[in-house]
Amino acid sequence: MNLSTYETVKNTDANVWFEIAKESDFPKNGGVCIKYKDKQIAVYNFTRKGTWYACQNLCPHKLEMVLSRGMIGDEGGIPKVACPMHKKTFSLESGENLNGDLEAIAVYPVKIEKGIVYVGFSE
Amino acid sequence: MKNVLVVGNGMVGYKFCEKFRASQKDGDYKLIVFGEEPRPAYDRVHLSEYFENQDAQKLELAPREWYRENNIELITSERITSINSKQKEIETSSKKTYPYDYLVLATGSSPFVPPIDGVDKQGVFVYRTIEDLEDMLTYAAKLKKEKPNSKATVLGGGLLGLEAAKAVMDMGLEPHVVEFADKLMPRQLDNSGSNILKQKLESLGINIHLSKATSKILGNGKIEGMQFKGADRLDTDMLVISAGIRPRDELAKTCDLEAGPRGGIVVNNKMQTSDPSIYAIGEVALYNQMIYGLVAPGYEMADIAVEQILGSSEKFMSEHIDMSTKLKLIGVDVASFGNPFVPAEEGHSILFENKINHVYKRINISTDGKKLLGGILIGDAEDYNMLHQIYLNGMALPENIEDLVLGARSEGDDSFGSAMALPDSAQICSCENVSKKDICGSLLEGEATNFKEVVCQTKATSGCGGCKPMVTELVNETLKSLGQEVKETICEHFEYTRQELYDIIKVKKIRTFDEALDACGIGHGCETCKPLIASILASLYNDTANKEDVIQDSNDKFLANIQRNGTYSVVPRIPGGEITPEKLITIGEVGKKYNLYTKITGGQRIDLFGAQLHELPGIWKTLIDAGFESGHAYGKSLRTVKSCVGSTWCRYGMDESVSFAIELEDRYKGLRSPHKIKGGVSGCIRECAEARGKDFGVIAVEGGWNLYVCGNGGATPKHAQLLAEQIDNETCIKYLDRFLMYYIQTAAPLMRTAAWLDKLEGGIEQLKKVVVEDSLSIAAELEEEMQQLVDAYECEWRQIVENEELQGRFKHYLNSDETDDNLVFVPMRDQKMPKAW
Predict the structure, then answer these.
(1) Residue B151 pLDDT more than 50?
(2) Residue whose C-alpha is closest to residue B628's, from B578, B669, B574
(3) How far is B305 from B299, CA to CA, in rounded Å?
(4) CA of B598: how far to CAs of B127, B573, B590, in Å?
(5) Which of A29, B420, B425, B739 is the most exposed, having the fewest neighbouring CB atoms within 10 Å of its CB?
(6) Whose CA is closest to B123, among B89, B146, B94?
(7) What's the CATH superfamily of B124-243?
(8) Category of B530 on φ-ψ map: left (φ > 0), alpha (ψ -120 to 50) or beta
(9) What domains sit in chain A, N to C, each tagged with a CATH number?
């Protein structure tokens, strides 16, 4: 496993919309981990804001597959996730590390169609 | 457009760039900085931290992007070989030339390697760059494989040498320090100070050899030992040389800049060399015939050079340079300020020495008794900041001068006064040269409104961080003087203290996080306020963590302790440490079935490590079927009540400590609190349960139990203090109910009982009044609230085992039944452990 497996995909660059599960299968205001090919992706249902986010499950700090188990929230209006290991926080919009100098995590677009949740990938 | 070239991308070269761009955004000047090392400037002061994490990026002063964003060209792995001062250009090792209008030499220094016979042998290192450290690490790893008890020696007992000794000790080698002088840190310490430091370091396992002149490095190809003058020798497998520094002034010779007889490029008080377009700063600059090997004077030089080049100021380098230092050396405080060795005709010294605790203090006072001239502090440097300020500002001394060493000895006195008493010009942060006026002014003029903003504005505390307590005090006092309440609010979402929020949630009968946010918060919450509110809701209603798992902290979310590789550990409750053979067998069988690493904890129970998320419900099904309950080892809640075996078996026992421990653990199990709570019950004053090291401790004495509260082990150990004497079981429980509930309602987040008692006005006497005498008339209410919590207790693991829906979150993937293939375990002593980070 290495960090280069994960690269941010912009909404406009998504070629594959991978079907995950029904909206109701996701916890409210929480995250889950999903598998796409050899990737582990964290998907968050930010019910309070009515938005969805996805990012790599791998925390770049100690390279553990744990970000989906972190708490979500916001900081100065930016939606974020806090890694459950050492509370490193990352913007769910840009992937940027908000409380340190770690490299940014990759983020992915999410769309909901007819109650089904999809995550977008470039390949 | 003018060209400014900086040769050297160390700490001082970096500081020059930072200050230059802060004054001159872009436009008229092109700024290029050359570094000979492969990476951008890093924090050499904290170099030894590299051994802890081996993360070079953590030491970086700024990432490469910073240089780009600030319009600075950074060229690394490129050495400058010559200066042509007539053509005003420099040449690099790859034969490229660059023209300059101003040239700044910040080449620093290199380690001085004494010309000892055999110094070129394999296994001899210097301690300066990350590459040096990496080479040492590789060599040490090889040594340890070949010979487990390898020795490493550091040549030089100065500041840096002792740091290096710590480094080799951390590598697992037997550390030795060899010093030529008859004392450690000869430039900073006197003989008594050196003796105390030597004793302390020896007690930590570092061998110190003083007054040793090394004549030869022994060994065939690689180092095997050192020969000293006289007959003796020292066997060693590795040597780190830390015998001082030599300025990197070789460029001066290529263009005839004036240099000192023992090295260094001569500069005036504008930091100009003998060629007015060439400046020198940091450890290469010879100013007042001295080389300054500290970062603070280097930063001041960078500042002066920037001002001079931009022509915007008549600022000059200080005439007198303060060489005071304070540091933590291998966990020992060492500080030296002003003149540490004033001779008898110039002043008097007041000395304090405590060989038991390895503390030494010396202050030097002028002969008229009016001025502090300098001093040395070892083992306890808490008063360094104030003493340093008194020295720097020539402040008046207290009536009893010895108070400066011993502290004020009558109650209510303060030998130092507050930081607010300092003159405006007092330099608070010496790394960034920030005065008291800068700090207070940023608040008074409205440029900053809190500590964080003050740091952004002034950069105070961003260097070594030693001035943080003083800056915090100045910020808080200034805010108070502005009529602002300094409140420790929870986070940006809740402008309340924990106690206020507790009361709001209780009065408004709030039951969920979203309700709390809607009622009294803003935004969408964060990792600070979510677990805090979860804890308050649990303390009020005893809701288990299953009710709203997304607001629970990492461990509570999955009711297990997350470990290094993202697996979990499982701790079933074993009240009082009493367990039947049948239950022990169940734990053993679970450990075997799931291949878990098993260890006895400090709280008299058993921890099973390495369980994957999806295995947790199955593990707990077996445990619960055998009669176990959750041990709440993951929660900020009651952990264990430790016990000794007591009068049932022990021939000294005064009472049944195990029975009482079980009763107490069963009563308070599942109780959520601001921090973890531990208890202990001992059957006699021999105190085998170590009850006084717990948040509450009960000890059997003639005529009942003595109840102690607010102790803890951990980072700042505290003995619990006596709350009530010779009480019976019932009274003990009554007082405990009141005490715990009062703590839960009034403590700050993540504050243990000892810290809470420290903050409680009136201390233990006040606590006695509230708990024993019921001076606030809240005892009945506290008892009732505790009883409600006790009655509402449910085992949260039983809830999960009995409810399939709740098991949904214990799965690695939502869309697949596969498990995490990222986990790697390695064997260790017949069990397993996670592969290292």
Answers:
(1) yes
(2) B574
(3) 10
(4) 41, 15, 10
(5) B425
(6) B146
(7) FAD/NAD(P)-binding domain (3.50.50.60)
(8) alpha
(9) 3-121 (2.102.10.10)
- Please give the helix or strand (H or E) that residue A21 lies within, else none: strand A16-22
* pTM listed for this prediction: 0.54
Please spell the DSSP secondary structure of B85-104, one letter per residue: TTTTEEEETTS-EEE-SEEE
Do the first three CATH levels of B2-109+247-310 and B124-243 match, i.e. the same topology? yes
Q: Compute CA distances B588 → A37, A74, B593, B602, B830, whole Å.
A: 38, 44, 9, 19, 15
The closest alpha carbon to B42, from B103, B141, B108, B125, belongs to: B108
- Residues B84-93: tens digit of each pLDDT: 999 999 999 9
Q: Is the minimum CB–CB distance between A116 and chain B shorter than 8 Å?
A: no
Tell me the one-letter amino acid at B810: F
Q: How many CA atoms lie within 13 A of B788 on its CB side?
A: 13
User: What's the CA angle centered on B151, arms B145 and B156, to 5 degrees?
Assistant: 135
The residue assigned the tokens 């003087």 is: B481
A30 to chain B nearest CA, in Å?
5
- Strand B278-280 to strand B102-105: parallel, antiparallel, or no bridges (unpaired)? parallel
A55 CA to chain B: closest CA distance, Å?
14
CATH number of B637-802: 3.30.413.10
pLDDT, mean of residues A103-116: 93
Record the tokens describing residue B182, joined without a space. Answer: 């008859």
CA gap B376, B259 in Å, rounded = 33
List pLDDT tens digits, range B603-615.
999 999 999 999 9
Structural class in CATH, domain B2-109+247-310: alpha beta
pLDDT of residue B409: 56
Of A53, A18, A54, nearest in space to A36 by CA: A18
Q: How many Å apart are CA B277 and CA B90, to the nearest integer?
A: 13
Does B415 score more than 60 pLDDT?
A: no
Q: What average pLDDT does the segment B254-277 reach?
A: 94
* CA quadruple B428, B432, B434, B439: dihedral, nearest 10: -90
**Side-by-side strand order, sheet with B233-235:** B214-218, B225-228, B233-235
CA distances from B179 to B56, B76, B194, B201 (A): 30, 36, 12, 14
SS3 B766: helix
Q: Which positions in chain A touch B818 (Cβ < 8 Å)?
A: 35
CA-based nearest residue in chain B for residue A58: B822
Q: Nearest CA of chain A to the CA of B809: how many Å?
A: 8
Q: B410 pLDDT exceeds 60?
A: no
Residues in chain A with CB shorter than 8 Å from the CB of B493 are 73
Higher pLDDT, B425 or B756: B756
Total residues found in chain A within this entry: 123
pLDDT at B412: 44
Residues in CB range of A28: below 8 A, 6 or more apart: A45, A47, B550
Pick from B566, B559, B581: nearest CA to B630: B559
pLDDT at B420 over 90: no
- Straight-line distance from the first to the last Cα atom of chain A, in angstroms, rounded to the nearest whole number: 18
Is B57 a residue whose pLDDT tops 60?
yes
Token pair 């959520």 is found at B672
Percent of chain B with pLDDT over 90: 59
Residue ranges per domain, chain B? 2-109+247-310, 124-243, 498-556, 637-802
**Nearest-CB residue to B814 (from A33, A48, A101):** A33
Q: What is the pLDDT of residue B836?
A: 72
For the record, the structure tokens of B442 come out as 């940023």
Q: In a 3-state reduction of DSSP, which class is residue B751?
A: coil
Burial of B28 (0-12, 13-18, 19+ CB in 10 A): exposed
Query: B541: closest CA among B744, B780, B739?
Result: B744
